[in-house]
Write a structure and sequence with these properties.
Length: about 400
């Protein structure tokens, strides 16, 4: 049947071979696209499943890792080395004395002022003592009178002894003359002693330095009335070479300080300078009021760099006490008292009660409770309990330092 016939009858014409080939090619492309889409969907689904599985494993690992309690540990150590105890102190002159007057009068003249260096026997001031001068003159006259009385009693006794030999006088009369002579002799001795006393008192109107040193204070001026009974100091004299420093050592260190130990003294105002001294003596007892022992430190001061009265720091090198030392950050104070958290070989926490001794600041002494080979947890938390499993933290700083060192070595 021809094509015209097919069109008349309304029947579609059969496609030719080219059109069929084109349709088949389109079908193949559609199937290829469908396969590619299915493959991509399958790959995306597989990737999602793999990613979820990896995330789940990572979450599980992270959760287990974060569930661990990391702690820093330290070791208890014995005090094989000594320590240095720094205590405050005040410098004083080796000899420091207020100089007062023994005789009364008016200050006539002073010769030395504050800061003056004097030697032993130097004249510091002079007093005007008219009353003492008059008393001395009166005492000299009384001594002369007593001497005259003694001479008369002596000559009378000699005459009566001669008369007694001739039996012209009685023995009683001779004894009276002898007694009068003895009394006159005693009166002369008393008068002489009074003269010597007043001369010594008059000698005190010259105020002299009892030792070599520096005048640190002058409390009088010309014309001042000096009353020896008032206890007023005219001058204060200090010997500045050597100097003394008195410090109070706490009871816990008292047994470690011995006479002859060398010390180092520093003053904040004298930066970079250190002065060497030594412990001259100790009190040998504890003051009940302060629970401390006083010690005296002596140090040379030939250049007068240190001044009496200055505040200084005294460093005492102490020998080792042999006690066990732990970090103060390892202590826990609970109901049972002071405790430490010890880490055993399986990283289990063991709480041990300890008895502490001296507090040295960053460290404390342990008197009982530890043997010295324990691993102690630093800064233990309040929730830490017996038997907890923890993980010791690594020393990151040391690793960083090692890495930096390796880098430097590689660079060089």
């Amino acid at each position: 049947m021809s094509q015209e016939r097919h069109s008349e009858l309304g029947i579609h014409a059969l496609p030719d071979e080219a059109e069929l080939a084109k349709r088949q090619q389109m079908m193949r492309r559609a199937r290829l696209v469908l396969v590619v889409v299915l493959v991509l969907l399958a790959a995306g689904a597989a990737r999602t499943l793999v990613s979820r599985a990896a995330n789940a494993r990572e979450l599980e690992t992270g959760t287990a890792e974060r569930a661990k309690v990391y702690v820093r540990v330290t070791d208890a150590r014995s005090t094989a080395e000594g320590q240095t105890l720094v205590l405050p102190g005040t410098l004083q002159g080796f000899v420091q004395s207020p100089i007062a007057a023994r005789s009364g009068g008016y200050l006539k003249r002073w010769y030395k002022d504050i800061g003056a260096e004097v030697k032993k026997g130097d004249l510091l001031a002079e007093l005007d003592t008219p009353e003492i001068d008059q008393q001395l003159s009166q005492a000299v006259a009384a001594r002369a009178q007593a001497a005259a009385s003694m001479d008369l009693a002596k000559s009378s006794m000699a005459r009566w002894e001669a008369l007694r030999k001739k039996d012209a006088v009685s023995q009683q009369e001779l004894d009276e003359r002898r007694s009068a002579y003895t009394q006159a002799t005693s009166n002369l001795a008393a008068a002489e002693a009074n003269v010597q006393r007043l001369r010594q008192v008059e000698g005190f109107k010259r105020i002299v330095a009892p030792f070599a040193g520096i005048i640190t204070r002058r409390n009088v001026d010309v014309g001042d009335l000096i009353d020896p009974g008032a206890g007023r100091a005219l001058f204060v004299l200090s010997q500045t070479d050597p100097l003394r420093a008195y410090i109070n050592v706490p009871q816990s260190y008292a047994n470690l300080v011995k006479a002859g130990q060398k010390v180092t003294i520093t003053q904040a105002e004298l930066r970079g300078r250190k002065f060497e001294g030594k412990v001259a003596r100790t009190a040998g007892s504890i003051d009940p009021a302060t629970r401390a022992m006083q010690i005296e430190v002596s140090l040379p001061n030939s250049d007068n760099a240190l001044l009496p009265g200055a505040f200084v720091q005294v460093a005492l090198p102490l020998p080792s006490s042999g006690m066990l030392l732990i970090s103060a950050d390892t202590l826990m104070f609970r109901r049972d008292g002071a405790q430490v958290a010890v880490l055993d070989e399986n990283n289990h926490v063991r709480l041990k009660k300890v008895r502490v001794g001296r507090n040295l600041g960053l460290t404390v002494e342990v008197l009982d409770g530890l043997t010295g080979n324990e691993r102690l947890i630093l800064n233990p938390s309040d929730s830490l309990a017996e038997g907890d499993v923890v993980e010791p933290a690594k020393e990151v700083k040391k690793e960083k330092a090692g890495a930096d060192g390796d880098k430097k070595k590689a660079a060089s």
